[in-house]
Every structure is written in structure tokens, then in C-alpha cells.
User: Fold this.
Amino acid sequence: MGSKSKPQAANDSDSQVSIPSGSSQTAAKSDEEENIESTTTNKKDVNIDDLTATLGSVSIAPKQPSSIANAPQSIKSVAKMLASNKYKKIVVLTGAGVSCNAGIPDFRTPGTGLYDNLQKYNLPFPEAVFDLGFYARNPDPFVQLASELWPGLKHSPTITHSFIALLEQKGMLLRTYTQNIDMLDVLAGVSEERMIECHGHFRTASCTVCSKPFDGEECKRIIVEENRAPSCLSCKGHVKPDIVFFGEGLPDRFHRLVKKDVRDADLLIVMGTSLMVSPVCQIPDMVRRDCPRILFNRELVGTFCRDGVKSRRKSYSNKERDIFHAGDCDESVRLLCSLLGWEEELDELNSSTRLG
Assistant:
């Protein structure tokens, strides 16, 4: 699993050069014909030798697309690692950048980020939309935002989400940690067993006052269809989906598994994150010192180093240093899968999870 696909052998009719012989002759050759043939034998031998020498230098392998042939060394290095069949306990860490191509804005990009676009709600500060105290006083901004972003209604998994699911299918994924609340990893096919939604999810709901569970589907109906905050059946407090607001602790599952996962990880892949929100941003610094770290991101973040030379981790060999590839996550993943021979599987998986 994870090795490069071998090109299929060409059919005999495609791989061999055929020299037409003309019509078959049933009659015996005349003496004159035999003499003519005899005088040209040496010339034919020379021509055949020349032809053999020429064909020996011709490759019948399909020509690689220029995007693959010109792939940057960073992507080639990652492809070589994954093709080695060595890495079976990969930990993935993702942020809002992996969902931008699904139409979900990230938080901090000036002009287009979620926080900049929340000003229409007249918030005292952008982060107030995820503040428990503010929600208790005015739940409407969050309700409006949640009704627009509720998973499974408008937004489909991206190529990057499908790549994570493909890693699991190939038996290479130990765990994926996401800071996102869009549930696109699960919609892409990642099992809940391999998934840590660090900041919660929309599948379940509870009261913000007494913490009593509230039916998740009913919470969805009230927020999406009625555009209001559900009320707790016990204390009448505001109910919200079980996503983590500022001031709340991360899910118990995160704390229960993260220390063991970073200790067991044999490769870390970080994609689409600013690594600014604690404690999740600490994960790249928690893996073993001999665990390779890969960053697919628009910019260098955290303690990652562009070439691994000044990394906090001692570089025992070239394969163990940080690898950073700058750019769009989906484009990076697609190029990587092209080098691995996984692109068809990737596209089939992504197509099967698209809405509508």
C-alpha cells in the first residue's frame, strides 16, 4: 500500500515495430530473384542494425505531464516517503485553510476572513460570536452564522479532506486532528475512530447553563429553520451545538489520546493552519525528535523551518528534517497524489462525497 503504481505492460502490437512483408508467395523463387536477394543481403543487414540501434534509444513509456515532471523537490520528497511503505502511523493536523476551497472562509485573512465578515452583526469584538458570556446575552449572531455554515447543507469535502480519508483507507493514518468545526473530514469518509475534532462538532448539543444534553437533530432544525437559539427543556437556558467556545475546555477525547498519538506518530503532516490557537498549536512540537514533519501551507508557521537546517529537532538525516511546501493545500495534495499514482482514487473518493 502506498507504493507507486507500475505502468501496465504495453501490448505486443504496441511495443514492437512491424515491418510489412507484402503478399505471401506460394511459388518457388526464380534463380534471378535469388541472385537479386543475395546481392542485397549485406545492405539489409546494415539497415536492420541501424534500425535496432535507433529503436534501442527510443522509450515507449508515456510522457509525464509537465506538472509532474516539474514537481518541486519538496513534493517529490514527500511522495518518496509515502511510497516507501514505511509510514503507518501518520498524524495529520489541519486548520481552516483546508476548507477554504469548500467555500468556508478562514478566520484571519484580511478582507475575506470570517472575523472581518462578522462586522455586520455589530459585535463588540469578532471573537464574541464564540464567547459564552456574549451568547448568553445575544445568541443571534452565532445562530445566524451557524445556520449558514451548518455541515452537510452547502459545503462538500475538499480534495485535502479526501486525501486524509485516502490515507486511512490505505492503512497509513493513526489520527487526524482538526481545529475546524465543519465536520468535512467525517463527511469525506474519515472514521470517527481516527478523528479528533479539537474544537467540537455539530452532531450533538447541550445547554450552556446546566450542561444537559439536547437532541442534536432538533437543535439543527431550530437553528437552521427557525433561526433562533434552542431553549433547554430543564432550565430554559440557551442550547448550542457542542462546539468549543472561548473559555471552554477541549473534548476529553483530545486530552485522552493526544499524548499517546504524538509519541506513536512516525510522520506528522500539518496543513492549512496558522498554528496560533493553543493547545492544538503545540502538537507539532510534541512529536518525537526523530519524527519527520511536513507542512503544506501558504506560509511558514510555528517552529517549522523552510529547509530543516535550523529546526528545533536534531536532523539525523535528510529524511528526518522538516519539509515545507508553500501554496494551496488542494493543489499540493493533488500534485503529491499524481506522483504517487493515487490521483484517480482521490478524485473518485472526492466525487462520491460531493453534495448535490
User: Anything to note?
Assistant: The chain has 13 helices and nine strands. The first helix runs from residue 12 to 15. The beta strands are 90-94, 173-178, 195-197, 200-207, 213-214, 239-243, 267-271, 293-297, 323-326.
